[in-house]
Structures are given as structure tokens and as C-alpha cells.
Amino acid sequence: MKRVGFLTSGGDCQALNAAMRGVVKSLVNSGEQIEMFGFFDGYKGLIYGNYRMLDISDFSGILTRGGTILGTSRVPFKTIKEPDENGLDKVESMKHWYYKLRLDCLVILGGNGTHKTANLLSEEGLNVVTLPKTIDNDLWGTDMTFGFQSAVDIATQTIDYIHTTADSHGRVFIVEIMGHKVGFLPLNAGMAGGADIILIPETPYDINKVVDAINLRKERGAKFTIIVVAEGAISKEDAKLSKKEYKEKLEGSKYPSVSYEIAAKIQKKTGKEVRVTVPGHIQRGGSPDSYDRVFASRLGAEAGALILKGEYGFMVGYKNREIVKVPLQDVAGKLKMLAPDAAIIKEAKMLGISFGD
Ligand code: F6P
Predict the structure, then answer these.
(1) Among the four 57, 278, 323, 333, which has the fewest Cβ within 10 Å?
(2) If you measure from the C-alpha of residue 169 to the centroid of ligand 1, how many angstroms do you get, rounded to a whole number?
(3) Which structural domains are found in the chain, ordered by start?
(4) Which one is catalytic: 12, 41, 136, 292?
(5) What is the pLDDT of residue 340?
(6) 12 has catalytic annotation
């Protein structure tokens, strides 16, 4: 008999349900007796004992369903050791519910922040297995996270739609793509959508180089230009600011996001009409694509295998085309970024894509 608790934490993404279903199917099909508990809204459910027992039927028909059947929330790691407004010790409370329900382990699905708390719980002696979710693909210890490929597909489709209208009007279009502080999502969607310029956080841009790339296209007879701007894109000047100075600059900015500031600068320097499209959370919505369904199911199946063997303290990740177990302490607190000399960036440049550098 195994008593397993589940929770999904942080921003949602596609294939969270597919991953949980994978864990449950793998456990149940092993013939082991399983009792399952679902904690609602991420760590909040574990802190406040907000849970219900789950049945195999709860996981039926959810392979294709987006979002998370358990709900999610962000409980920042930096406040996890602070008491809540009523003086409750959050870490002790999570341990309390774990032991009260006599759990054998917790299956935690999440991204960067989630893994810091998962590692803390593991260090506190709880049995934890995690699964890597995020559309940003910025989790250390895994080449791929689920949700990423589905978000790339949606972002690509957005760029495809923009192409036709940009062409008709001969405009410069900026499509702002999520990805938090890293460029995996904007780069992949930009390449798939045929963007001419891609600005990613890892490569600070020079606005004059961006303008040069637009002018070069014009000289070569192109009517329009598509620019993908990562939500975390940063100019060379801003990259010189301290973290605090840059935060203050953003807070005092009259623009809703970096894309609008870039648009205003391009418009001023080129006299061209510039439009901005921000697909935002649409990128996290809807059903997982076929890649993510398979990928999350595989990760889930292997997480189930770890639980059956009683191997805890690991994230189930993906390295060099193989599913691997990665110690939680190796994952927690590290950000995976695109290396500026990554082959994909070199190849994008060979295709004529400008990074504004
Ligand atoms: O981490 C996933 C993500 O969608 C990022 O790409 C984005 O920066 C952030 O979450 C948005 O967070 P929220 O849903 O809290 O607005």
C-alpha cells in the first residue's frame, strides 16, 4: 500500500493533468494498492489541509485537459519560512498534514519556485518526487519541461496570424512572447513563425541594430518586419543597471511592457507604423499538444516507478533524450538559460535572424 499526495504549484501550463494521470496509471497498473490525496491550489492546500481523497476516476479523461484539476497558486519561497498572518508556521504545517495523512510521499508538479520549496520539504525529511512543468523551459536539470512545446505551438500560431496582416499593411509588428527571464520560448516560437528579429533576455539588444535590421529588410524589398520580443528582453543600456535600478525603471515606465517601449523607439527612428501584439496567458491555455501529452505521460510513468521503488528526493527530468532522475538539491535555486553561443542561436543568425546585438 502506498499513500500518495499530489499538488500542482506555480503558474499552470498544459499537460499538468496528463503528468498526474501518468503517475497514477503507472502506480495502479503495477498492482500496488494506492490511496491518493489531492491538495488544492498548490502548497496552500498542504499548508491549510485543504485536500480530498482522489479516486482513479478523477484521472480519467484528463489526458487532453489543460490547466490543473487540483488548482494552483504561487506561494513564494522567500516567504515560506515566515509565519502567515495568523502566526502559522507554514513549513511545520505542511509537515503536520503529511504525517497526519500518513503519506508515503508527495508528488509535486512545478517550476523554479516550486522546486525550492519541494527541496526544503525533502530536506525536512518528507518523501518527495517532482515533475518539471513550465512553459518557460527554464528549469535546471532537464533539457525539457512539459507545457513548453504546447506554448511554442500557440505562440507560433500567433506569429503566423500576424504575418498576414503585417504583410497587407506593410507594418512592423512586435509579438511579445512569455518566457519570464529566459529566451527558449520566444526563440523557438520566433524561429517556427519566421520572425525576422528575435530579442531575448540572454542577449541584450541595441535599438540601432534592430533598426538596421528593419532597414535592411526594406532595402531587400520586404514590405513588413516581424519582431519577437521576449517579455524579459533588455537593452544593452538597461543591462548595465543594477537589479534595483532596473526594477525602479520598469515601475516608473509609462509603457505597459518592454515591447511598447521598443515599438515607440522604432517608430521614432524609422517613421514606420509599429503595432504590438501580446498573446499573454493564451500561451499557457488550452489542451496540451501531442508532444506534451506523450512527454508528460512518460515522466509521470517514471515518477510512478520511483515511488514504487521508494526512491525519493528526485525530479524526473529529461537529459540527452533519456528520462533521468535528478536530485532535488541540484535543481533548486538554479535557472537554466540559453547560452549566448548555443548552436540554435548560431543557426538562427545563419538564417538571417537578427538578435539586435
Ligand atoms: O512561468 C510561467 C509564466 O507564464 C511566465 O512565462 C510569465 O512570466 C509568468 O508565468 C506570468 O505569471 P502570472 O501567471 O503570475 O501572471
Answers:
(1) 57
(2) 32
(3) 2-147+288-331 (3.40.50.450), 150-284 (3.40.50.460)
(4) 136
(5) 82
(6) no
